[in-house]
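sry for the spam today, last one i promise. struct tokens for design, 297 residues
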């Protein structure tokens, strides 16, 4: 048994529960607030006033975005995650036609809501590709409206920053059932901050799971704060990476000949913080499970 007091990745805080997931379908804002309270420490911090903050306050923010601003004030570590939450949100665009609240870590993709705000309680979310190049900028609408999208975004960031992680090789979808039966699926449309068709997410006591499926094959990742939560799943699948260990590929019937997931080094983490998970940077190749291309994360 792991003694969490001696483990370099131990987190002494209470194990997060799953109660927040009960509210995802009916009240995503409440689910977001409960999730953040469970997974992120609270600490009061005053945000510096900016012109953008004044512009944002001059209009009535949608409830979900106002809730996010309040959560970041009470849980400022949310702004230390690998992709950026922009709080206060920034008025942006050549026509100043969007209020941006999130940015991919290299700035090549933004997320925001259209301006002017019309009082719509749960507006659509714009995904802006190449936001700094007016000749290449593309705008698309995300699958979830603002309330569901913000929950997805914070969920993904929390997974990428979790102290303890496991990432599988490519496995047959049919072999996931025993593992995923131990989790509760989050009822939101697939979403990914990177160049994939999207992930679905699941939750269990003290743990989050992300599943990327391509036809009959999939890649699964598990994310936890305490190693003792993750350890019982060591033999559940053929893992490529398990709490800092690079593991040899095990034979998984139905996936012979597929390549293992490549996990590069250098995961974004706070200075001095031990890392047992893979990096936040994910490949940009289109993944077809059976070819020679690693699935993108």
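last one done:
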């Amino acid at each position: 048994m792991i003694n969490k007091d001696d483990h370099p990745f131990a987190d002494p805080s209470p194990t997060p529960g799953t109660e927040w997931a009960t509210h995802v379908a009916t009240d995503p804002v409440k689910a977001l607030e409960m999730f953040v309270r469970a997974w992120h420490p609270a600490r009061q911090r005053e945000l510096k006033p900016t012109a953008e903050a004044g512009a944002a306050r001059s209009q009535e923010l949608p409830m979900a975005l106002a809730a996010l601003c309040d959560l970041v004030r009470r849980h400022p570590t949310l702004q230390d995650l690998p992709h950026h939450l922009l709080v206060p949100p920034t008025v942006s665009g050549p026509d100043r036609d969007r209020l941006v609240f999130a940015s991919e870590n290299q700035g090549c993709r933004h997320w925001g809501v259209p301006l002017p705000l019309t009082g719509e309680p749960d507006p659509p979310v714009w995904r802006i590709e190449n936001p700094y190049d007016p000749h290449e900028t593309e705008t698309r609408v995300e699958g979830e409206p603002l309330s569901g999208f913000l929950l997805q975004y914070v969920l993904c960031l929390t997974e990428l920053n979790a102290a303890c992680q496991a990432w599988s090789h490519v496995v047959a979808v049919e072999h996931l059932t025993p593992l995923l039966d131990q989790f509760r699926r989050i009822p939101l449309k697939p979403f990914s901050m990177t160049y994939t068709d999207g992930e679905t997410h699941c939750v269990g006591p003290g743990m989050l799971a992300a599943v990327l499926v391509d036809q009959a094959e999939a890649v699964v990742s598990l994310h936890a704060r305490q190693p003792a939560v993750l350890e019982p799943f060591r033999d559940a699948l053929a893992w490529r990476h398990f709490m800092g260990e690079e593991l040899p590929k095990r034979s998984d019937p139905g996936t012979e000949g597929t390549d293992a997931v490549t996990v590069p080094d250098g995961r974004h983490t706070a200075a001095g913080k031990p890392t047992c998970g893979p990096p936040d940077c994910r490949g940009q190749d289109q993944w077809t499970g059976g070819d020679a291309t690693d699935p993108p994360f």
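DSSP finds six helices and 13 strands in the chain. ok im logging off now
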